[in-house]
Design goal:
Strand content: 5-15%
Low-confidence stretches: none
Mean pLDDT: 84
Strand order of the largest sheet: 1-3-2
Number of strands: 3
Largest sheet: 3 strands, antiparallel
Structural class: alpha+beta
Number of helices: 4
Shape: rod-shaped
């Protein structure tokens, strides 16, 4: 006795396959992000990390206490400078 595969079966299989592939890609991206240790952090990441207001971060930038770069309208801060500033090194 043979079983027939219908168009609906194929559609359902395609949806399951697509979901599985998406999950595999998402997992790979998440694992790779944890391996990345950037030298420069965006403003939002620094503020979240230090629980700091935008104004406080701006003051650090203006007073020259941390190195920064402006790229396409976004500020990036040197991670080592941030760590040294708040670790008292």
């Amino acid at each position: 006795m043979s079983e027939l595969v219908t168009k609906d079966d194929l559609r359902q299989f395609g949806l399951v396959l697509r979901t599985e592939i998406k999950n595999m890609i998402d997992t790979a991206i998440t694992e790779n992000k944890t391996d990345i240790d950037p030298e420069w952090l965006k403003s939002r990441a620094v503020r979240r990390l230090l629980d700091m207001s935008p104004g406080s971060l701006q003051n650090l930038r203006i007073t020259g206490k941390v190195r920064h770069k402006k790229v396409l309208g976004s500020y990036y801060y040197n991670k080592k400078d941030i760590e040294e500033l708040f670790n008292g090194e």
